[in-house]
Amino acid sequence: MVFALGTSALADGAPHAGIGDPHLNVVPRTAEEAARIAAITGPATDFTAAQRFEQNPAGAATVRATANGDAFSLPSGNMPFEGELDFRLGDGLFRKLWVSSPSSTLASDGLGPLYNARSCQSCHIKDGRGHPPEGPQDTALSLFLRVSIPGGEEDAIAEIEDYIATLPEPTYGLQMQDFAVQGFRAEYKLGVTYQEEVVTLADGTEVSLRHPTYRAENLGYGPLHPDAMLSPRVAPQMIGLGLLEAIPAADILANADPDDLDGDGISGRANLVWSHEYDQVMLGRFGLKAGSPTIREQSASAFVGDIGISNPLFTAGAGECTDLQTDCLAAIHGDGDARVFELDQNGLDLVTFYSRNLAVPARRNVNDVDVLRGKQVFHDSGCAACHTPNFVTHRLEDRPEQSFQLIWPHSDMLLHDMGEGLADHRPEARATGTEWRTAPLWGIGLTKTVSDHTYFLHDGRARSLLEAVLWHGGEAQAARIKVVELPAEDREALIKYLESL
Description:
The chain has helices at residues 7-11, 31-40, 81-95, 120-123, 241-245, 249-253, 295-307, 326-330, 345-356, 369-380, 447-451, 465-470, 477-484, 488-500; strands at residues 26-27, 114-115, 143-150, 166-167, 179-180, 189-200, 206-217, 229-234, 272-275, 280-283, 391-392, 395-396, 406-407, 415-417, 435-437. The protein is α+β, with helices and mostly antiparallel strands. The strands form 7 sheets. A 3-stranded antiparallel sheet has the order 4-3-8, with no helix packed on it. Strands 1-12 form a two-stranded antiparallel sheet. A two-stranded antiparallel ribbon has the order 2-5. Helix 7 crosses helix 9 (345-356) and helix 10 packs across helix 14 (488-500). The relative contact order is 0.18. Residues 1-17 have low confidence and may be disordered.
């Protein structure tokens, strides 16, 4: 089946054949429900008080915001009792430290041989966001380099119009691993340096932005291909993923305007990807460029790429080893016993359930005068054009935690051109080298509490929320200019609003 969706199909509101939600057991909305949803998700117009239900960004799945590092590690607030054991078991697998083969601990062996981390929790620290190396002695444990080379027409996916063909780098694959088990060489060591640039705001305030330069140093298996494209990626926070997965694809696609037909300067595009799980084209939702369609597929890909753990979706016992890394391919791996794969189907199901149900904490200070003023600045500056405040999820028969919830992720889940300043120049499916998925903002004000840092954007270059805003370019350039021109009290109110999310 061919789903050749060009820009006109995404912009004119026509049905999006084939790009539905095959991963969800959906109960269709009634006309009455559709009308209620349209009314409650309309744009904010009154900034004198919080909107109804705004304090609960995950609907009934919201949990109380705790003032400690476990704020992102709680289960959905509306989880049935019988789901709590699966959540805890998934948590155990998320935290598990894998060991190399052969090992007497058969349920935990299979690490590598090349890897970026020994557990999911090692990168998604306390289920929050990772960070770049903090000084020469710090490892890049929660930041790694994606890598690929340009492909040709024969490498394109014909079912996806505007697909940008790429290929794995011949020696190093699709991502570079900076650790290896005993007897093997790591693929590289990350090198990063920064150059400071001072930006002066309209009121004279000076803000320093750091421009990073990344290097793949100490290459363990020879030089990179001359056309290699490298993209640094910091591990994102994990909260609310199941709710993002439950947003109807049609609602996300309805906001796409790739040709900017409404003339507002915002040209959101859907990333369409090939699903290994469903063997069809699907809407990309997860990852910094929306390169993965489901939580299960994203999790399975991370297991094989980050840890070197085979699973039912990505079955290579050697993980990310390439054909040129023959010793790695010949190494002893942990699959082939009663598990079949190093992470079996039951294990993948549990990790998926855990990842789907990490809860979003409640908003703080939603009726504070400064927060409400910051909310108005957020809307007046144009931030809400991409950071769409709210959606209503599908009504789901088998996922009560995510079923028919009014949620406030502050993301349209679409790709936007963010300008040269943030470009990695590495395409991913339909995403160009300057496009990124709009990052959800829920929980962003608790980053310091959970992760003990305030590093933001895809590579952690921004050291504060204001720096993150000032890095916005491309489609967000007009909003950035408005923020630069704000009086100090409005700018501070905007930051307070973001910190309340």
